[in-house]
Specification:
two-stranded antiparallel sheet, eight-stranded mixed sheet, 391 residues, single chain, 17 helices
Length: 391
């Protein structure tokens, strides 16, 4: 029996080596919609592809997932998303910058919009939310409604704030803090785990250094001005997590992130400390679908691209577009797009409701399975799983 198992193991290894192909995985940004990518990763494990992935590149929540997938298995990632990721992780107001603005907005909204905002639950918020979470979201929505209804004055103020955020090299505050998210990252992601994974993991970010015009012109002419950081080559876990925070620092929503002068980019120490913002902010040169690291890698034969917008949404967008053959550097593209819309900003991007997270994970899994089956891939058999676990 032992000889039979050893023979089967040897045969399996020979077959695997002969047909070996390296996969790159590209993960888009999109807040809570990132739960969809967890479902895709589950499918890649079931079809035996996750073991062949050599490069993962992500932006914003895609960067967080990229590091998470390299450091954990799909079961751990799924449990984390279903049980720990939520409003407190991504949408906790920074009291140092939020309280005065929120108080003014809520008072004004109530005065201007009447009794609707005095109701206990005017926005039909999920009963699963804690009282604190419900109140925070209600205040946010009150403020948004107020801004929308008061017109040009506050619109100009918002544009001014956004301009200051991007043009200034100084640190910029955001409405929400992310201490809970930092704790999740420190617990699950480390430089040691990344190095052991054997996967090159990249995250994108944009330096907040006043070059808005240059970045915008680059976007108009199709050039890529986003910065790609390889997490595996950083000097410590602190720098790894700082890069992930920078990649997801959406302007005004979250504070900008300062990366230290010893951050490594393209194999070299940067040598200067910069403030960075969300790498997916495409209007100023970001890249929400960061295919470049996978396309350039000589360890990648096929590139799996995971979008967080449906094909129809992408076709109707001014900034979003699908990866083309030129960007893929001649490598085979396997595109996984949501079979239906994952929602707008409120219903999708900031909707960390547990029920929505579960639905997104399930949809990502079923969509990925459908694409992989169409491409001729099959789920890993029980025998192959057994041999892999034993040997």
């Amino acid at each position: 029996m032992k000889k039979l198992l050893s023979g089967l193991a040897l045969f399996s290894l020979c077959v695997t080596a002969f047909f070996a192909e390296g996969f790159g995985l590209v993960l888009s940004g999109g807040g809570a919609k990132g739960a969809y990518e967890v479902g895709v990763w589950k499918a890649l494990e079931d079809y035996g592809i996750s073991d062949k992935i050599t490069v993962i590149s992500g932006t914003s929540v895609g960067a967080l997932n990229a590091a998470l997938f390299a450091c954990t298995d799909s079961g751990e990632a799924e449990t984390l998303w279903r049980e720990e990721v939520g409003y407190s992780s991504f949408l906790m107001p920074d009291t140092s910058t939020f309280s005065e603005v929120a108080a003014f907005a809520v008072r004004s909204a109530k005065n201007n919009l009447g009794e609707r905002n005095m109701q206990d639950n005017p926005y039909n918020l999920s009963p699963r939310l804690s009282p604190v979470e419900s109140e925070l979201l209600r205040q946010l929505l009150d403020g948004v409604t107020f801004i929308a209804d008061t017109g040009l004055g506050l619109a100009k103020g918002t544009v001014h704030s956004l301009t200051e955020y991007i043009f200034s090299e100084a640190h910029s505050d955001g409405i929400f803090e992310r201490d809970a998210l930092k704790a999740i990252m420190e617990k699950n992601i480390s430089l040691d785990k990344l190095e052991k994974s054997g996967i090159d993991v990249y995250a994108t970010a944009i330096p907040k250094d006043g070059f808005l015009v240059i970045n915008t012109l680059g976007w108009l002419f199709g050039s890529d001005s986003v910065h790609y950081f390889k997490l595996n080559e950083q000097l410590n876990s602190t720098n790894v997590n700082d890069i992930l925070m920078a990649s997801s620092a959406f302007p005004l929503v979250y504070e900008s992130t300062r990366l230290s002068a010893n951050i490594i980019e393209n194999g070299k120490v940067v040598g200067r400390s910069y403030e960075y913002i969300d790498g997916g902010f495409e209007s100023v040169g970001g890249k929400n679908v960061p295919v470049l690291p996978a396309a350039k890698s000589d360890k990648v034969d096929k590139i799996i691209v995971v979008y967080l917008k449906s094909a129809e949404e992408i076709s109707n967008s001014y900034t979003s577009r699908r990866v083309d053959e030129y960007e893929a550097n001649g490598k085979e593209l396997i595109e996984i797009l949501p079979s239906k819309s994952l929602g707008d900003f409120v219903d999708g991007t900031i909707n960390f409701d547990p029920e929505n997270i579960s639905q997104l994970i399930d949809l990502g899994y079923s969509d990925a399975c459908a694409v992989l089956e169409e491409k001729g891939y099959s789920k890993v058999t029980k025998l192959k799983r057994f041999l892999k676990n034993v040997f």
